[in-house]
């Protein structure tokens, strides 16, 4: 069998991260003390290079408007959007990992390899409507993440969090598989488009159960409410950049896959479709309320960010409830913005070298004045997370709420606005702690004794994130029309 | 015939989690796997049945028993507290879900129609190979990546000194 040129073009963007992921562990085996430093540097450089190449191919495909496919893997606009999104998140995470793993004293090449595997899995997950590939993509993105959560094994919480994530994730994956089996059993096809058509002709209660189980698998990855319990523990256990990557890229890939599978392909007829929308609306509302209220009472910044990521899953799901093309484009826009602002928020913890459990509000006291530029960039990210006007976060929420009101879900939109008002409190609290509170007594002395925190790459990523948040706010109509709306071309 | 294999599978599974001795529980699992292999034969899929016996009853079971014997803990530890509420709640939920599932299966029109349809042609190894390397080529490659990723993940977590 020979691959045609277009098939090779469909594979190329995934080929390089996969190849690098396979090769990196070999280089990581070297334990010669003298050369370790150089090899570490080379490992990170190779990982970045692979991600960059993949980004290059994705943007190349996007610029040409070429949508190749191989087998059931379709590199259409939406898949290319996912690819670009995931690769940017991965690049930011790799840069931050370099600093964070040095702070923790636990630099391992395998982490990079696992990160790249996970990226490949995310793109596969979001670029197919074939149930078999969907499941494989889901596993390929989650299994490395389970291990990454428990990367810094010297902390007991790391193993605990990793195990919790693994067990709950395994249950969710088996639910997904059961759903896929039921759908296949009743329609005789693994392709979601065919399944949707067959179900429209002959709605079958057991197949609806299958669709619900499938939905559960997605919602678990998005960490929507009844399936969110793993989130704070897993994020707290994971290294900060991995937590950021998990919150951004996993959520993004799962949402885009959901967008492709549910409203896109499995467009169910009126009685069933209405039920699914109803269920998603209820879950979105619950996610918003619970995520925001739990975030209020956290004393640990990382757990606060975990609950905030749950509440953001709620905003994004609201876009799915509205269901219009503009709302879906709003979701994609919000995802892109969320990438910048959440990687920035987790980067804040990395930049100030907060390791282990020292991620409470108290540990951040007065640090803002030490590195004002970086702290300012982080504050911009927090403003954006809270949805305060000049930043991009506001426009993302605005687009989703506008479409919600347009489709008659005024109550949900109101709930969303209220929720983001509540969220202002806990995001602003970070800034208050950073800039307006004096360091806790004894902290200055500790800081004097500890070696100076050195985080050039993480600092740079933070500045980039802060800049992006403002820039995306300024040019949001262009981003929306040229990027988000065009990504949805494949559907229409 | 179906009932025999189904009963073997179910009883094996039931015995497995009622059994306190881990080695015996492992052997009950083999019984379950054989039952499933029988079901595959009934579904005109001898390839899956052979794979089930070779891979699951053979390789994986040997591995599981090997690990159990290495760990040298044949008896399951008793639960620390008898969580009665959870146990009964779980049983109730399982019963409700089970009744719901049975009801759905009995009501299903598609399943009734399936009973009248002719038996499909048996799947051969040849057909399977052609399918894997033509239609499911990408999936096959992704499986390869997945296995490697899982291996690296397991080693990176488990190895004491890297």
List the main descriptive attributes of the protein structure presented here:
heterodimer; A: 492 residues; mainly alpha; 1% strand; B: 162 residues; Four Helix Bundle (Hemerythrin (Met), subunit A); 7 helices; 0% strand; globular
Description:
The complex is a heterodimer of chains A (492) and B (162). Chain A is an all-alpha fold and 492 residues long. Chain A has a domain at 269-492. Chain A has helices at residues 5-28, 36-64, 77-104, 109-126, 131-149, 156-187, 192-201, 205-222, 230-237, 240-265, 270-296, 301-322, 325-351, 361-364, 372-386, 392-406, 410-436, 443-449, 456-474, 476-487, and strands at 69-70, 73-74. Chain A is globular, with a radius of gyration of 22 Å. The two termini of chain A are 33 Å apart. Chain B starts with a helix and ends with a helix. Chain B is globular and about 55 Å long. Chain B is 79% helix and 0% strand. Chain B is an all-alpha fold. Chain B is built from 7 helices and no strands. The model of chain B has no long low-confidence stretch (mean pLDDT 84). Chain B folds into 2 domains: 1-74, Four Helix Bundle (Hemerythrin (Met), subunit A); 123-162. The chains are: A mainly alpha (492), B mainly alpha (162). At the A-B interface, helix 1, helix 4, helix 5 and helix 8 of A face helix 4, helix 5 and helix 7 of B.
Could you write a compact summary of the structure shown?
Chain A is an all-alpha fold and 492 residues long.
Query: How would you describe the shape of chain B?
Result: globular
Order of helices and strands of chain B: HHHHHHH
End-to-end span of chain A in angstroms? 33 Å
> Which strand order does the major sheet of chain A show?
1-2
Q: Which class best fits the helix and strand makeup of chain B?
A: mainly alpha
| Mean pLDDT value of chain B | 84
The assembly state of the depicted protein chains is heterodimer
By DSSP (H or I, 4+ residues per run), the number of helices of chain A equals 20
- H-E order of chain A: HHEEHHHHHHHHHHHHHHHHHH
Quick one: overall form of chain A?
globular
Count of folded domains of chain B:
2
Mean pLDDT across residues of chain A: 86
- At CATH's second level, what is the architecture of the largest domain in chain B? Up-down Bundle
Largest interface: A-B, 42 and 28 residues
The proportion of residues in beta strands of chain B is under 5%
For the secondary structure, the number of strands of chain A is 2
CATH-assigned fold name of the largest domain in chain B: Four Helix Bundle (Hemerythrin (Met), subunit A)
Per DSSP E runs of 2 or more residues, the count of β-strands of chain B stands at 0
- CATH-assigned homologous superfamily of the largest domain in chain B: NADH-ubiquinone/plastoquinone oxidoreductase chain 6, subunit NuoJ
Please estimate the helix content of chain B. Answer: over 70%
Q: Major β-sheet of chain B, in short? A: none
